[in-house]
Amino acid sequence: MSxxxxxxxxxxxxxxxxxxxxxxxHAAILRExxxxxxxxxxxxxxSPLGSPLPWLIAGAVVAVLVFFGVLRWQNVHFVRxxxxxxxxxxxxxxxxxxxAGADRPIPRSFYIVGIGVIMITLWMLARAAWDL
Length: 132
Fold this sequence. Notes:
single chain, mainly alpha
């Protein structure tokens, strides 16, 4: 741990939670921006539950709540639940990156980058949750 962090009184474990929170925030910003651009391009379908706009807003609110929850609460059980929920995102990304037909409007590279972003987020969340 560097002297700057020690001067602030942050332990190694607290730094892992801070890093996980900021990585999660950046991944959430990327997800929200991607979903917004997909919506603008007409690639997000309207569901029986209505327009994608309320879901984009709800996603942003949840992302901010998770960010502050990880940053301030620093509860290992909370971070483990977030880790598990993020891990579930891998299944559709893997399906569309490697097993979907070539006739998809979104290129496979989009899903492969998404897998990379999710894996980095999972890594940082795991460091905080299991003190790796």
